[in-house]
Design a protein that fits this description.
There is one protein chain. This protein is α+β, with helices and mostly antiparallel strands. It has a five-stranded antiparallel sheet with strand order 4-3-2-1-5. About 25% of the residues lie in helices and about 15% in strands. The protein contains four helices and five strands, in the order ββββαβααα. The protein has one domain: endopeptidase fold (from Nostoc punctiforme), CATH 3.90.1720. This is LRAT domain-containing protein. It comes from Prunus dulcis. Pfam families: LRAT.
């Protein structure tokens, strides 16, 4: 990875990677956990209404229908990216590197081994599939997609959105 950019390619991804992508003109990031074989588990707003009149089609690759489910999702990388660039969140970076990097792109925290990260993300996804309570109700500041990804990586719900700028 480059010093100032976390841009990566799909070929470089490893199971357990915390990935993210810009959204809406680079106004925010969307985060998730790459679980392997082209799949990402990520957390979406639970309070957005589900519509049946949307023109957004079901994904031909993974079958994801963006009009039918909210909360913890398992989708292909393309559905996760929604046409935006792929970036990989860095962990265990030095304090100097942390200060140089854009807020919300890296952490000085150490993380779990990749098999534990994938297992935790998958367990949360499966719980959400069963009863809709996989990661709780979405909240922009204290229970969002970045909290989900950092929790799977470190056991801590951390988000740059909740920190003062």
């Amino acid at each position: 990875m480059r010093l100032l950019s976390n841009r990566t390619s799909g070929e470089e991804l490893q199971p357990g990677n915390h990935i993210y992508s810009y959204r809406k003109g680079h106004t925010y990031f969307h985060h998730g956990i790459y679980v392997g074989e082209g799949w990402v588990i990520h957390f979406t707003a639970t309070d957005e209404p589900i519509t049946t009149s949307s023109t957004e089609p079901r994904c031909r690759s993974c079958g994801h229908d963006p009009n039918t489910k909210r909360g913890v999702l398992k989708t292909c990388v393309d559905c996760f990216l929604k046409g935006h660039g792929l970036l990989r969140f860095e962990y265990n970076v030095s304090l100097g590197r942390f200060i140089l990097k854009q807020k919300g792109t890296c952490s000085t925290e150490t993380c779990y081994p990749s098999d534990k990260i994938v297992r935790l993300a998958t367990e949360i996804f499966k719980k959400d599939e069963v009863d809709g309570t996989g990661f709780g109700e979405y909240n922009l500041f204290n229970n969002n997609c970045e909290n989900f990804a950092s929790y799977c990586k470190t056991g801590k719900r951390v988000s740059a959105r909740a920190e003062p700028h």
